[in-house]
Amino acid sequence: MEKVNIAEKLSKFATHWDPKVVGELNGQMVKLVKFLGPFTWHSHANEDEMFYVVKGEFDMEFRDRTVHLGTGEFIVVPRGVEHRPNAQAEVHVMLFEPAATLNTGNVVNELTKATLQRI
Amino acid sequence: MEKVNIAEKLSKFATHWDPKVVGELNGQMVKLVKFLGPFTWHSHANEDEMFYVVKGEFDMEFRDRTVHLGTGEFIVVPRGVEHRPNAQAEVHVMLFEPAATLNTGNVVNELTKATLQRI
């Protein structure tokens, strides 16, 4: 039961598209990640994902539209929905999703992180 | 799949100890709540709870110690652990917890909210 300081955790890594686990509860994980540029189009068969913008802004692209998110905003992407985060500049994001969630969902490529570091 | 702006949602209510539902995913709810003063000592038999400070500061009191949390910090209180949030001044908090979580846990009193409003 230690508290977690988000800014302090974010200062510990500089990599992009490389989620770090900072908390866990009820089978869900809290992750921090830095986005830059476009990610991979993908979906998650069994997991809803929440993206909360800690600092910065990015576009959550769907096949039929785009939602722009800024600091202090979040979006929930339901399971099965194809999406692609796209950040023009670096953005810091907190994720909430089931522990089993793979970052690239149904796609496996050079961006896939099979195991995540806890920081 | 609409985005949620935390500040905009917080502007919609002024009550204390009155959680509002602003999102749901994987059977978990995202809630916003304003704390002021001491809450009720309680625990949750089956739910872990996450408290993320959006703005302000408060003490999470446990029977054997107190953890002080400020803006941008969070704590996970595991199921079964007695706790009491206590805020010297108003603080805005985002909660993540299972949909079934009762705010006062194992205690039912005048602070209990049996049903929660979605905003």
Automatic annotation (TrEMBL), chains A, B:
<feature type="domain" description="Cupin type-2">
    <location>
        <begin position="39"/>
        <end position="89"/>
    </location>
</feature>
<dbReference type="InterPro" id="IPR013096">
    <property type="entry name" value="Cupin_2"/>
</dbReference>
<dbReference type="InterPro" id="IPR014710">
    <property type="entry name" value="RmlC-like_jellyroll"/>
</dbReference>
<dbReference type="InterPro" id="IPR052044">
    <property type="entry name" value="PKS_Associated_Protein"/>
</dbReference>
<dbReference type="InterPro" id="IPR011051">
    <property type="entry name" value="RmlC_Cupin_sf"/>
</dbReference>
<dbReference type="Pfam" id="PF07883">
    <property type="entry name" value="Cupin_2"/>
</dbReference>
<protein>
    <recommendedName>
        <fullName>Cupin type-2 domain-containing protein</fullName>
    </recommendedName>
</protein>
